[in-house]
Amino acid sequence: MSAFHREQVLSVQHWTDTLFSFTATRDPGFRFLNGQFAMIGLEIDGRPLLRAYSMASANHEPSLEFFSIKVADGALTSRLQTIKQGDIILVGRKATGTLIADNLLPGKRLLLLSTGTGLAPFASLIKDPEVYEAYETIVLVHGCRQVSELAYGERLLQRLTGDEFLGPLLQQKLVYYPTVTREPFRNRGRITDLISTDRLFDDIGLPALDLETDRVMMCGSPRMLEDSRDLLEARGFQEGNHSEAGHFVIEKAFVER
Ligand code: A2P
Fold first, then answer.
1. What is the pLDDT of residues 154-202, one digit of tens each?
2. Residue 224 Cβ < 6 Å to ligand 1
3. Exposed, middle or buried: residue 110 (CB in 10 Å: 0-12, 13-18, 19+)?
4. Is the CB of 183 under 6 A from ligand 1?
5. Which atom of ligand 1 lies at the shortest distance from residue 180's CA?
6. What pLDDT band is residue 253 in, cutting at 50, 70 and 90?
């Protein structure tokens, strides 16, 4: 078990039948960059059962936070959804991931595109003061099927907007754009359509997508990631990685079960 830290669950919040979030203690030796993920999970019959989870907490916070789906027959999430305060979870010692500022070329506007629990790495990044230093504007888009699935993000944004230190940065630079695809809501439609038709930019009153100024991070539904990549590449955007910075980055490590 030495590849893992054993952490204690501090709180669990259920948002919908399919979504929950939880916080846990953080070993002081566990370091990560905001936007990264680690392998986390449970010890089942003496063996670790782990999946990739982005940290939703920022690296300056003393505890860890995760945002997860619940799948009734999902090997890990069917069990993880029953955790309670005081339970032990396993957290891999090594954090990694592509959604980090250094993988992007310098830009003026940062688009954070997420669906479902793909919001998690951006929950971490929008708490990072360096992100606000690096960009003039940050647009956080969160797409879900139903309005109820937006609750975690809406609550987070409310909390951060009221934060003594981060609040003014959010108010000055962050635009939050939740969108729903399968029931009525003030913003409707898939992220890909909202970008290709310019509706997102019209709605927020900012200029359309621009290779010169925009940098993009994406996390969420694999179909959304594929289609968004196609859309961006058709406009000349190039994918960045650890060896070469680009115009956009995609997180492929994503728990679906
Ligand atoms: P839709 O309801 O039109 O399928 P999921 O729950 O399947 O992971 O989807 C989360 C969100 O991502 C939903 O709003 C869904 O829209 C949207 N989505 C699914 N596939 C794509 C895609 N290929 N491009 C853009 N958005 C997508």
1. 999 999 999 999 999 999 999 999 999 999 999 999 999 999 999 999 9
2. yes
3. buried
4. no
5. 14
6. confident
